[in-house]
């Protein structure tokens, strides 16, 4: 019997039941939920970093984006508000499209 002890997507219990299996679960408190979302973000990021092809990378990026949506809500924001902050930062500091790799800065 596998033990997972991790946050899973909302429809996983129905998927498990449809497969004719039983399970044990509980609903997390708000504090536990935020903590588990943060852990899940690292898990999904590791899966993205380990992706061997573009299709898998996109799947993992989609999972990360789902976590970001949930975390935004945990922090009392919408994804549109997060996007507005991202756009403002990009306007002020730029994005990453130019592939700039900073080596060092010399104090004169």
TrEMBL record:
Q: Which organism is it from?
A: Anoxybacteroides voinovskiense
Q: What is this protein called?
A: Putative house-cleaning noncanonical NTP pyrophosphatase (MazG superfamily)
Domain of life of the organism encoding this protein: Bacteria
Q: InterPro entries per the record?
A: MSMEG_1276-like_NTP-PPase_dom
